[in-house]
Amino acid sequence: MNKLSLIAAAGLVAVAVSSANAAYNFTGSIITENFDTLPITNVLNAFSATIGAQAVVTGSGFDGTKISGTGTTATPLTADAGTGTSGAVYSYGAATVAERAVGSIASGSNVMGFGFQLTNGASDAIDSVTVSFTQENWRTSSTTLNIVLASYSTSSTSSTYLSDTVGFTLASALDLVGPAFSATQPLDGNLVANQAARTLTVTGLNIPPGSSIFFRWQDANEAGNDAGLAIDDLSISATLIPEPTTLGLIAAGSVLALRRRK
Predict the structure, then answer these.
(1) pLDDT of residue 35
(2) pLDDT digit string, tens, across residues 48-89
(3) Rounded to whole angstroms, what are the CA distances from 70 to 48, 74, 107, 243?
(4) Which residues touch 90 (CB under 8 Å, ≥6 apart)?
(5) Most buried among 32, 100, 251, 252, using CB within 10 Å?
(6) 168 — pLDDT class (breaks 50, 70, 90)
(7) How does DSSP classify residue 167?
(8) Cα 101 from Cα 81, distance rounded (Å)
(9) 38 contacts 60 by C-beta, under 8 angstroms
(10) Helix and strand counts by DSSP (H, E) for the chain
């Protein structure tokens, strides 16, 4: 299983997991997370039946929530190898194997969303963020091609970002796009044939220290059984905007270097 890391253009910058809200934060050195810590058995009642009530996806820096659906009971974080069809957030991987990916399936009872918050703990503003990952397909849909829509926002809040209806920009390059229907079920999401690379660079952000950007994936309940789609191999890179004083020091250093050469 691959890891999440953050490398800023102005230097090495870390991503740390906060147990309070599952945010990743700049800390000054590289910290990696791999999804091998997702559970290999179901976590019962992991997500409330109340729409928009967020909870940490156990063993990760992601949050999950119910974004719509008629169900009136809490849903588990479901450990599965592609056989399940119930609406839930899933820890995908072979049974009893700590090789996991985070994903979802939507149903009439439970339409789920998941995502993460990235907080700027550096001393300079974030100018751009690049998100890359491997999409894993663990089962196909039975009727309609499934797409789990990706989006991002710098104006949301950590308590509501997965279910907010305004303030988000669609990020189609990060959508999870299901495979064509096949009678062969389940699929092995660890095989290259059942994977796809996704990447997006968001520019012109100017996220000041202490502020955040939010990335999320929202499922939709399609006709028939939905596909089982997941994220693995997630990585984030960012560039920082140096403060004016930093730019001045850089310029002064350049002038001094030129003088010495003369």
Answers:
(1) 86
(2) 999 999 999 999 999 999 999 999 999 999 999 999 999 999
(3) 13, 12, 9, 50
(4) 77, 78, 79, 80, 84, 102, 103, 104, 105, 138, 228, 230
(5) 100
(6) very high
(7) S
(8) 10
(9) yes
(10) 1, 20
